[in-house]
From TrEMBL:
Keywords: Amino-acid biosynthesis, Aromatic amino acid biosynthesis, Lyase, Phenylalanine biosynthesis. This is prephenate dehydratase. Residues 8-183 form the Prephenate dehydratase domain. PROSITE patterns: ACT (PS51671), PREPHENATE_DEHYDR_1 (PS00857), PREPHENATE_DEHYDR_3 (PS51171). Gene3D superfamilies: 3.30.70.260, Periplasmic binding protein-like II. The keyword Lyase applies. One of its GO terms (molecular function) is prephenate dehydratase activity.
């Protein structure tokens, strides 16, 4: 069956990955296009094989996703949305397998680290694999009832496995934040409701440069929800920052803050302006309530 690029969304990983699950959640009518790497996922969007890309950027347990912040500025794409995907790990095995049959469990290193209680309870040996969905496929292909995988329910469906136990993650809040990428920017406008502005910047290599560059966000009352730093071009003095603020660049407070940032920086580039996902406010409400 031929699919149209206009109804295709690219993701990094194999069928059944959590990124695949997120594609289904946000664009259930789209065809999900697996990509071997993040660079391939970006290229599939940039070169017109897919309309959007679903890219993980942070996890509430594991932290930021490696390499993404390095790749975003050079992707040639724009952030047009965000999605928060709850991560519910499943213990997957061949049909007919009992938990007492299992000796080892394979999965991505982060997934294994998020299910330590299960290993202690059942006395299982964790084995690091490239990814969650790939582990599920390996279990299906090897046909060994002594081996299980930690992956999504979608992976079980994809590779003909069964879930012996659901929601085995240690932390109930385990959630991955994804950004949705596209070739063209989609500006929701300053009056459209809560929005997020993502951007990168480089400060001059002088004392207090970062303090001065960010001062405008404080004085103008702009909430900065993310600030990540990383080295570029192999130089320990050349630091680039990835930041996110609540608000639209046309909002007076955000505009003034960005103007001040630009004055103290060598480069400021907006990567996307997009609607804020409701999970942001739900998470904040829980934090304020002490949950």
């Amino acid at each position: 069956m031929t699919t149209s690029p206009e109804t295709t969304i690219a993701f990094q990983g194999m069928p059944g990955a959590y990124s695949h699950l997120s594609c289904r959640a946000v664009f259930p009518e789209f065809t999900a296009l697996p990509s071997a790497s993040f660079e391939d996922a970006f290229a599939n969007v940039r070169e017109g094989r897919a309309k959007y890309g679903m890219i993980p950027i942070d996890n509430s347990v594991a932290g930021r996703v490696a390499d993404i912040h390095h790749l975003l500025p050079g992707s040639g794409l724009h952030i047009i949305g965000e999605h928060y995907q709850p991560v519910h790990h499943h213990l997957l095995a061949l049909p007919g397998t009992k938990i007492e049959d299992i000796r080892e469990v394979r999965s991505h290193v982060h997934a294994l680290g998020q299910c330590r209680k299960l290993f202690r309870e059942l006395g299982l040996t964790p084995v690091v694999a490239a990814d969650t969905a790939g582990s599920a496929r390996e279990v299906a292909e090897r046909g060994d009832r002594h081996i299980a995988a930690i992956a999504s329910e979608l992976a079980a469906e994809t590779y003909g496995l069964v879930s012996l136990r659901a929601n085995i993650e240690d932390a109930a809040h385990n959630t991955t934040r994804f950004i949705i990428m596209a070739r063209e920017a989609v500006d929701p406008g300053p009056k459209s409701g809560p929005v997020v502005t993502s951007f990168v910047f480089k400060v001059r290599n002088v004392p207090a440069a970062l303090y001065k560059a960010l001062g405008g966000f404080s004085t103008n009352g702009v909430n900065m929800t993310k600030l990540e730093s990383y080295q570029i071009d192999g130089q320990f003095v050349a630091t680039q920052f990835f930041a996110e603020v609540e608000g639209h660049p046309d909002d007076r407070a955000v505009r003034l803050a960005l103007e001040e940032l630009d004055f103290f920086s060598r480069e400021v580039r907006i990567l996307g302006v997009y609607p804020a996902h409701p999970y942001r406010f739900l998470s904040r409400a829980k934090l304020d309530a002490g949950e």
